[in-house]
Amino acid sequence: MRFPLVARFYKAYYPSGKPKKDEIIWTVESPKGICGAVRFKQFETFQLLTGMLVTPELRRKKLGDALLVSCKEQIEAMQCYCLAFSYLTPLYEAQGFKVIEANALPEQLRGRYASYCNSGKDLIPMKHLSS
């Protein structure tokens, strides 16, 4: 993985979504470089799909769907959760995620979810159905 390129990509389009070297990172590239990415933070018994990002000029062109389809094996490898921006709920639902109650999140994610929501982020907890 070319981590510095991924870090630069996030810094340019989603500065608060800092990738970490211990995450599993999938990317989509064009001749111009990285144009989409998604990260999977690993926990002992589950994973968190986090920081999915598509360059602004390519949004609403199904690139997010294609990225999720491409990493389907990763999503299904271990129980997978997602804290999705509410407006992206249909995107994740189309790829097999289901809205769940916050109290159904693993304990390690509940505090993170509450913190994100308290900071003003409009997030919806989701779990992949095959997980």
From TrEMBL:
Record-linked InterPro entries: Acyl_CoA_acyltransferase (IPR016181), GNAT_dom (IPR000182)
Enzyme class: transferase
GO MF: acyltransferase activity
Keywords recorded for this protein, A-Z: Acyltransferase, Transferase
Annotated N-acetyltransferase domain residues: 22-98
E.C. no: 2.3.-.-
Pfam families on file: Acetyltransf_7
Annotated Gene3D superfamilies: 3.40.630.30
The name this protein goes by in its record: GNAT family N-acetyltransferase
Species: Enterovibrio norvegicus
